[in-house]
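Ticket reopened. Same input as before:
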Amino acid sequence: MTAPRLRSLQLRLAVRLAALFIAGAAIIAGVLVWRAYDTADTLADRELSLRAADLAKYVATGPNGTARLALPAALREAYGATPDADIFAIRAGDGRLIAAMPDTFGSLVARWPTTTEDASYFHLPGLAGKTQDYYGLGISLDSAAGPLSIWVARAMGATALVHSMLEEFVLDIAWVIPLFMLLALAIAILAIRSTLRPIREVSEIAASIGPSTTSVRLPQANLPSEIVPLVTAVNRALGRLEQGFAVQRQFTANAAHELRTPLAIITGALENMEPNLEVEKLKTDVDRMNRLVEQLLSVARLDAIALDVSGTVDLNDVARDVVATFAPWALAQGRVLAFTGPDGPVPVMGNAYAIADAVRNLVENAVAHAPPRCEVTVATDAGGAVSVIDPGPGVPREDRERIFERFWRGKGAPSHGAGLGLAIVAEIMKAHGGAVRVEDGPNGGSVFTLVFRPAC
Amino acid sequence: MRILIVEDESRIIEILRSALGRAGFAVDAVRHCADARAVLEVTPYDAVILDLGLPDGDGLTLLKDMRARGNAVPVLVLTARDAVEHRVAGLDTGADDYLIKPFAMSEVIARIKALLRRPEGALGALLRSGNIAFDTIGRDLRIGETVLVLPRRESAILEHLMRRAGRVVPKTVLEEKLYGIDDELESNAIPVHVHHLRRKLMGRGATVEIHTVRGVGYLLVEGKA
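Engineering reply: fixed in the latest deploy. New output:
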């Protein structure tokens, strides 16, 4: 399994910026913390050095000739107040212990190597039964009583105060950093969105392009310059497609003319011939051919030319016209056509010729399937639907999807017909944003219903 | 009866000429708009059959010119179906009727006869269908050898059905015709008149029949006794 690729430019930029900002925030916070601790340590070191120098200042040669520490009262009090926190030991150049506090530290340093003029730092884990750790330095200093080795140390717990103050400070900063980064990220995402908005608008226009709107071109205004070449290329492609559609349309129109004229000639010539059985058969064949050519052209037209379905059509008018036009033909087949509908008009959005064509195909099918002397009814509904009701055998449930496929023919269907009629109906309804459905008739047979969008 | 065919397809001219000739019409044919204009200037035709796609122009333009010059000859337009869809508005400007290619020759003759039967047409006086004949001026109906005079409303209905024999005449059209005669038309007046008319036709052995197309209107068909 591979991780899903991020297809959205916006998401991709946002994710990368977020990663960048998180890394940035972590680095800045880390550096700040490190610098703060470093500074604290430096401060502690400096304090220790100052204290060592301070102690050296108060070492002097006593009346008996030995060096001794004479702390002023204030200092002695300060050291006494925190006997465990601040410790020190002073040894003379000859190794003699001058002063120590506490004494255990004095005996400890006696075993340590002598100090140098450069401060050497040490870490003392525990001292004489006390658990706390000490951190300190040893240094060689000059005093009134000659060179001295001085060690001063402070309990780690005492520096903890400084550290906790630092931590608090750092945490305050660290809090602000991610917040600031989030804000920056939000601003960045908003900026990306507003940059991409013209692209989204162009996409919406592109989404509306169909066979009926081949003349639409995508606007280039406000687009980021990186996208403009893409849009230009798409527009050129649309231009070529539009040309292709025009060629197709021209072909359809030419084919219509080229096929119809010879068919009209054959039809006419047959009618002029002395009627006999063979001529009658040929007439039936030519009729079938006429119908097939017409249906094929209907299909080609629906494929190539987008129907203009923007008109307002009165379904009652269309249905009544189809019934009037095909009633004589149905009568010749021994069937009766009828129309029922509401009194007022039934306005729908659509193309009157295409709707008539759809109803005509349904009527032809219904007449072909209805038993002789039966009535086929075309009924309109005030809600914007027209139904063709036949008393034929009906459509088996399992065939109800497939009958709308091109060239599909049911078992036991009459041999005439190419299986295009219902496909044409389905295409016409698709172009209208409507639907065709087939149901059982009220007294057997089938009901084909075309449902349209009502006119606004 | 003299008919002009304006059509560029020679085979169609041939067939139309032969079919119309057998129906008793004298037929002239031209292949170009220019020729048609020239012929129409000098010859009074009773009807014109006009193809829309002509080599030197559009048949509709020719039609408009004819009408603009005051030529009121009935015109039957022949056209491919696509053309109807795009030009039906144009047809309103002057064509009297149109037929879609491919068409049945019998339909052409029926339409031409219907055009000629119009009140201003050349066949205005006598309408025939099957074994019945209706005199539009004398208003009497002949069924076989029987002659009978119909009530005004029934004869008006029959005249209209016969003028458009084989085609459905909407009930609304019949109602309009009767409004001129009868100001207070009851809602079931037409069915009642048609019922009477049917009984008279059947009772006297007419070979035409009036069918009801429920919800639309009526049509008169030949050949069923």
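The interface with chain A takes residues 9, 11-12, 15-16, 18-19, 22, 53, 80-82, 85, 101-106, 166-168, 170, 211, 213-217, 219, 221 of chain B (CB under 8 Å). Chain B has two domains: 2-117, 126-222. Please confirm and we'll close it.
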